Amino acid sequence: MLTPMSRLVRLGSRQGTGVDAVLTTTFASDDIVALRDALRGALGTVWQELPSTVETTWRERWEPLAELGLPGFCVPEARGGFGLRVDAAVTAAMELGAALHPSPFAGLTASAHALAEAAEAAGSSGDPVVGGLLDDIAAGARICAFGRLGPDGRTARLVDGGPDADALLLLDRTRDELLLLAGPGDWSGEPSRHGFDITRTCADVTVTAGRGQRIAAPVHADALYELLLAADAIGGTQRALDHTVAYTGQRQAFGRPIGGFQAVQHRLADHAVRVRGMALLVHEAARQFDAEPRSQEQALAQAQRVRRAVALASLSVSSGAGHILHDLLQLTGAIGFTWEYGLHLYQRRVHQDARLAANPRAAARSLADTEGWTDAH
Amino acid sequence: MRTDLEEYRARVRAFIAEHGVPMRGEGVRVPADADEERAIRRWLRALYEAGFLGAGWPVQWGGRADHLPQHDLVLMEELIRGDVYRPLDQVMLASHAIIEFGSDEQKAQLLPRIRGGEHVWCQLFSEPDVGSDLASLRTRAEPDGAGAGDGDGDGDGFTVTGQKIWSTDAQWADMGMLLARTDPSVNRHAGITAFVIPMDLPGIEIRPIREMTGYAEFCEVFLDGVRLGPEHVLGEVNGGWKVVTSGLASERAFVGANSLQLERMFDDLVALARAARLPDGTAALEHEDTQATLAEALARVEEVKLIVRDTVERILIDDEHPSDGPVAKLAYTETNVALTEIAMGIITSSVAIDEAGAAVADRWYHNFLWGRALTISGGASEIMRGLIGRQLLGLPRA
Ligand SMILES: Cc1cc2nc3c(=O)[nH]c(=O)nc-3n(C[C@H](O)[C@H](O)[C@H](O)COP(=O)(O)OP(=O)(O)OC[C@H]3O[C@@H](n4cnc5c(N)ncnc54)[C@H](O)[C@@H]3O)c2cc1C
Q1: How far is B186 from chain A (nearest CA, A)?
Q2: Tens of pLDDT along B2-37?
Q3: Of A80, A141, A219, A279, which is most buried by a Cβ count within 10 Å?
Q4: Do the two domains B2-87 and B121-244 of this chain adopt the same fold?
């Protein structure tokens, strides 16, 4: 019998090889490897060559990616998705990050998950707005972005993909609810302050008074969002590191490759160890989602485990990736300092990945909580 | 499999509770007195007799047919958890070198004595002028040459002259694994021979050196005209480099226990932050900045635990990459140092440590200093980075 994921295995067209396989060396199942290869094919990723421009017409090419199942990794099978395959979502986020893809994939995946959970809960009497949006998301026809409602209940800062999205799902943490904005004129966006990461769009959003509908927030939506942002950052960091390693192995100075100087080589070795550790944390966090809780108690314990694992991964990546990229810029010299070379695009993007989740601080606070340090008095 | 391992763990635990000899501190292994020495040797023998140590050896030499590498990991974890004396790596390395390169007579003579707790081993590699670049070692083992000697007719012995240093356990070791130059005329890797020598041979003088931790664990070893016979050669004459670099199939899964070690260190860090009183009377742990520092440290610890777990998984399926060992060592030892530095920062920021945390603070002072042993010995961090650069990243030799 075909599981939904085996569709992906058949889609896999290239062999899973490359430096990145050595750099992270974690065990991936066949379907994950196939997914990665299929995505590289679809995205046109040539791992060793960094993209130097940002795709501006990604929406026109989104449908084939949606056909690969991209929006549905965390959508129940009954709704046409793959269940809760966070490992697949993480793999996709890493590839999209590595490709500097402009889609708000983290938010889209979290949104699709939340909408599908809401539709499941409502059963056949479900809301046609939610159902229709879900279908369109699955088909690649509509994009739903994700954000967090501020304390005023009206504005959401830093909504990734906000300027171009067809719908928004805003988390209201004070009420454990999501506000769905799916109609024209439901919100207005102000993108002008968010131009540092030029690989994606971002806006501060204001909800039009009286608009939107509220749905219950499923436990994992926010954690999923945060984890996929970390995955995006580590995917890009890995590729930038691979690229820099290759560059330093070729670029000559003082009669030898600069990668033969210890001051260069040792830093790259440290970065490789760190990147492996970060990637493993991200994969490990994905694994924590997968267990199907059988009781209320188990569900609570699992939510706690997920929260902790996601915080560890996010903290590690958000505090480490930017630093590593900044050093890679140093190690590539003036060529790396150019716009054209494109390393800076990764620096900009991992910065934004951290900021979208208010990290590293949010993750550190979250850990302080899960570890019980905040009641130390 | 899982339940078998849990059952194994339970047996190890019970055994440790009954026979274990407590450890005095990280890296402290030289017995304080004759009583402790007797207890340690008895304990090591008991571990071999019970089939917990040396279980991976060939069955002929006391190994067990049902041994799994996972058992080694479980054993080491429980030894750490129980705070008891751990097997000496020099002894384990010597065992595997003998199993791999020893003659039948050497095996028959030496292996049972290791199992009996009768032979403690030390390593005589480093010299005053030779550390990281071990292949440039100078201690000479001069072959007698054909027909030479004092009339016993064989003439194929050696006379050893030179100095070794940093030899851990040499002051109480019965045997030493010695590297010496037997042929200075050939390329430096080709002229080295490994020897297995009794430490009480005439001409050997041992002087313990006091370490910065206050303990005297390693020694200077002077070799002055020490006579060795062919029976002391391990492997082939001039084949010593192969003996030290063959990546001896030791208890490789032991590396997995580093995870537990770091976890315990981290618990100690939280305990310290709880007990450290700031000038205003609050505990360090109450403050957001301390919590943030701890959170970062925890993320690092979890990174290393996963790196180690990944390494062990590959060891278990015999699919290691040559850089896995260096990656795991560098990640573990440097993160360990980072934790000790955080601990020192917590202590210096405090004016007092609560009574409940006094022992923890003392442990941190010791571990702060001891942390450097891990980043220097067994290949300094810089050597590890070079190995990673070449073997993992494919960069040219620096
Ligand atoms: C606690 C402890 C126990 C030990 N036990 C034993 C033992 O039982 N038997 C034994 O034979 N030896 C033992 N040693 C010695 C150990 O093997 C050496 O200390 C180690 O190989 C480094 O050699 P060295 O100390 O001479 O440092 P050196 O080789 O002088 O190096 C000093 C420092 O220079 C740097 N460095 C060296 N080479 C390079 C390079 N290629 N690139 C960049 N940087 C470099 C590193 O930072 C290194 O720490 C022990 C050492 C310690 C600390």
Answers
A1: 28
A2: 678 999 999 999 999 999 999 998 889 999 999 999
A3: A279
A4: no
Verify whether ligand 1 is closer than 6 Å to residue B129 (CB atom).
Answer: no
pLDDT in tens, chain A (377 residues): 234 444 444 333 223 333 444 445 556 788 898 999 999 999 999 888 898 888 889 999 999 999 999 999 999 998 889 999 999 999 999 999 999 999 999 999 999 999 999 999 888 778 899 999 999 999 999 999 999 999 999 999 999 999 999 999 999 999 899 999 998 899 999 998 999 999 999 999 999 999 999 999 998 999 999 999 999 999 999 999 999 999 999 999 999 999 999 999 999 999 999 999 999 999 999 999 976 778 899 999 999 999 999 999 999 999 999 999 999 999 999 999 999 999 999 999 999 999 999 999 999 999 999 999 998 65
Ligand 1 center–CA A89 separation, angstroms: 45
| Ligand 1, atom 17, residue with closest C-alpha | B377
- CATH assignment of B252-392? 1.20.140.10
How many angstroms separate the alpha carbon of residue B375 from the centre of ligand 1? 9
Q: How do residues A310-342 score in pLDDT, each as one tens digit?
A: 999 999 999 999 999 999 999 999 999 999 999
**Of B133, B74, B2, B397, which is closest to residue B259 (Cα–Cα)?**
B74
In the block, tokens 């080694």 appear at B72
For residue B80, what are the contacts with CB-CB under 8 A and spacing of at least 6? B86, B257, B260, B261, B264
With a CB cutoff of 8 Å and minimum separation 6, the contacts of A336 are A244, A328, A329, A330, A343, A344
- Cβ–Cβ contact A18 with B under 8 A: no
ipTM: 0.93
Q: Kindly report the average pLDDT of chain B as a whole number.
A: 94
The angle that helices B288-316 and B324-348 make with each other, rounded to 10 degrees, is 160
HSE, CB side, 13 Å, CA atoms: give it for residue B125.
Answer: 20
Domain ranges of chain B: 2-87, 121-244, 252-392
What 8-state DSSP symbol labels residue B130? B
Q: Does ligand 1 come within 6 angstroms of the Cβ of B123?
A: yes
Residue nearest to atom 26 of ligand 1 (CA): B131
B124, with CB counted inside 10 A (0-12, 13-18, 19+), is: buried
Q: What does pTM read for this prediction?
A: 0.94
Closest C-alpha among A320, A130, A137, A348 to residue A230: A320
Residue B380 alpha carbon, nearest atom of ligand 1: 49
Task: Please say whether the beta carbons of B95 and B111 come within 8 A.
Answer: yes
Q: B 229-288 residues with CB below 8 A of A?
A: 270, 273-274, 283, 285-286, 288
Tell me the fold of B2-87. Answer: Butyryl-Coa Dehydrogenase, subunit A; domain 1 (1.10.540)
Closest protein CA for atom 41 of ligand 1: B383
Nearest ligand 1 atom to alpha carbon B90: 8
Q: Nearest chain A Cα to B334, which residue? A: A270
* Centroid of ligand 1 to alpha carbon of B324 (angstroms): 20
SS3 B181: strand
Domain topology for B121-244: Butyryl-CoA Dehydrogenase, subunit A; domain 2 (2.40.110)
Which of A281, A373, A374, A375 is the mutation pick for testing B, counting most B CBs within 10 A?
A: A373
Domains located in chain A, CATH noted: 4-216 (no CATH), 223-376 (1.20.140.10)
